[in-house]
Amino acid sequence: MKIWVYLNGNQQGPYTLDELRQLNLTSSTPVWYEGLSQWMPAREAPATASLFCSEPVTEPVFSGSEVKMSLMDDRQPVAGARADMPPAPPTFIGWSVFLMICCFPIGGLLGIIFSVMSGNAYRAGDYTRASRLSESAEWCVIISIVLGLITAPLMVALF
Predict the structure, then answer these.
(1) Does 59 fall in a domain?
(2) Contacts of 35 (CB under 8 A, 6+ apart)
(3) Is residue 19, in this structure, part of any structural domain at all?
(4) By residue range, what is the domain housing residue 47?
(5) Residue 133 in domain
(6) Do 52 and 59 meet the contact criterion of CB atoms below 8 Å apart?
(7) Theoretical Cys-Cys bridge with 134: which of 1, 27, 118, 156, CB 3.0 to 4.6 Å?
(8) Could you read off the pLDDT of 72-126 as tens digits, one per residue?
(9) Is 78 part of a structural domain of the chain?
(10) Measured between alpha carbons, how far is 155 from 153 in angstroms, rounded to an integer?
(11) Which helix (H) or strand (E) holds 31?
């Protein structure tokens, strides 16, 4: 695919995607290629958006009681939160802690581990992995409840 860019007041190109990686484009650099109806920022064009997915998202810098945000382009200030990402999947951390203390510790501990990993995956921007880990945490909660209900009467009968 041949891509044209608008740099320093001049139309330049055509370039390949690999050549664009070498140009140090900003996400707001106008680009055009066959299939686009008009010039658009590189971050919005489907073919060039991947060049900017790995840009680090800035974190807040705390200075005394005030928070200063260092925003580049239009990226979100929350780490990993992209505008196109759906809301975070449930982590089941509360259920996992409750089950670890009251019902079935091994399943509860596994639920906590999967819950924390799910939150971390979401903050890293990997919604698919976060959803899978959330589902694993949910299964740990369900299995812990079932095993707790099965073993509770046995413990009462034996002790």
Answers:
(1) no
(2) none
(3) yes
(4) 3-52
(5) yes
(6) no
(7) 118
(8) 333 333 344 455 668 888 989 898 899 888 878 888 899 999 999 998 888 888 8
(9) no
(10) 5
(11) strand 30-33
